[in-house]
């Protein structure tokens, strides 16, 4: 999954306080144009607070912890669990987008600051197929309030330093740090999953399935068969098919077909390659065969996707599960 990060707000607050997330449609065009999915994160560098998706139970957050909202759900950060807030207005977002980030917001009036947060966003493509996003829960909290010697703890220390000193290039540093922070949060989440957990992340934890997934991801244009994947993964065809389907949620050849279309959609959106070369890059012998398969799986032809026309209707429902990938290669 390709990420683009932006560290956007530096919030100093005094009890009682509450802030509401902007709607993705209002923030994406201003800071991360062209992306179709927004992940929000909030790093609490001092004090304590609560985080909650609107309408859901609040989660306590301590200094040294980060909360990541993975599904673009509207959410509130506040000093107590039940406080409400309105999202920032369009003019505030315009001013923030035109300023050096992180944009400071001061909710301290005449008392002592009770909490400080660094808030930002990560953008990625959710369509047509993003198995990681589909596997994540709506909210992930990570960190160590007693002091963390790992990467996440180092990120928080560096973020505090960059925000305070505002040195040249700090905006770029914070952006890259936020992308690495997200990777570390994901690692911690995967490590915390129970042994009986199923899904794409469970597949990554399985040494045999992780090998099969890596082969598909690294060599999507290869003429993979179930037998070839099984041999490389040190499993029999039957065991690979059964375990892959049970943990990942679809047969290996179905996953391969979807992954090829995900790569194709990214290349089409980038606009730097023609359809024929994209077809070859993902293992199709002809542009016509690729175009038929793309429209069958995605719902629109490659030319429409390149123009920004999106639809999820029927995606994946007719993907070929025959060995070697999509029909008519």
UniProtKB/TrEMBL annotation:
PANTHER family for the chain: ARAC FAMILY TRANSCRIPTIONAL REGULATOR, HTH-TYPE TRANSCRIPTIONAL ACTIVATOR RHAS-RELATED
Organism the protein comes from: Rhizobium loti (Mesorhizobium loti)
One Pfam family in the UniProt entry: Cupin_6
Keywords for this protein: DNA-binding, Transcription, Transcription regulation
Domain HTH araC/xylS-type: 210-308
GO MF entries: DNA-binding transcription factor activity; sequence-specific DNA binding
Lineage top rank: taxon: Bacteria
Gene3D superfamilies from the UniProt entry: Homeodomain-like
SMART domains: HTH_ARAC (SM00342)
Annotated protein name in UniProt: HTH araC/xylS-type domain-containing protein
């Amino acid at each position: 999954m390709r990420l683009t990060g932006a560290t956007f707000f530096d919030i100093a607050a005094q009890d009682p306080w509450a802030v509401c997330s902007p709607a993705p449609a209002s923030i994406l065009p201003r800071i991360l144009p062209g992306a179709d999915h927004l992940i929000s994160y909030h790093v609490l560098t001092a004090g304590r607070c609560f985080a909650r998706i609107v309408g859901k139970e609040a989660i306590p957050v301590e200094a040294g912890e980060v909360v990541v909202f993975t599904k673009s759900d509207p959410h509130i950060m506040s000093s107590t669990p039940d406080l409400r807030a309105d999202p920032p207005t369009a003019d505030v977002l315009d001013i923030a987008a035109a300023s050096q980030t992180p944009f400071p917001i001061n909710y301290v009036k005449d008392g002592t600051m009770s909490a400080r947060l660094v808030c930002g966003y990560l953008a990625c493509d959710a369509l047509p197929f993003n198995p990681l996003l589909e596997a994540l829960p709506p909210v992930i909290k990570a960190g160590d309030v007693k002091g963390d010697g790992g990467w996440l703890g180092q990120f928080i220390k560096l973020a505090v330093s960059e925000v305070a000193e505002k040195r040249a290039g700090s905006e770029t540093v914070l952006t890259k740090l936020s992308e690495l922070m997200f990777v570390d949060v994901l690692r911690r989440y995967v490590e915390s999953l129970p042994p009986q957990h199923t899904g794409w992340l469970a597949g990554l934890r399985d040494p045999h399935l992780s090998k099969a997934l890596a082969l598909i991801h690294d060599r999507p244009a290869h003429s993979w068969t179930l037998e070839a994947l099984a041999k490389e993964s040190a499993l029999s065809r039957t065991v690979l098919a059964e375990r892959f389907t049970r943990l990942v949620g679809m047969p290996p050849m179905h996953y391969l077909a979807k992954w090829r279309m995900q790569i194709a959609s990214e290349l089409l959106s980038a606009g730097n390659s023609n359809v024929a070369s994209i077809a070859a890059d993902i293992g199709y012998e002809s542009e016509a065969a690729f175009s038929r398969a793309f429209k069958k799986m995605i719902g629109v032809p490659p030319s429409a996707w390149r123009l920004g026309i999106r639809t999820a209707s029927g995606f994946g429902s007719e993907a070929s599960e025959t060995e070697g990938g999509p029909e008519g290669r």
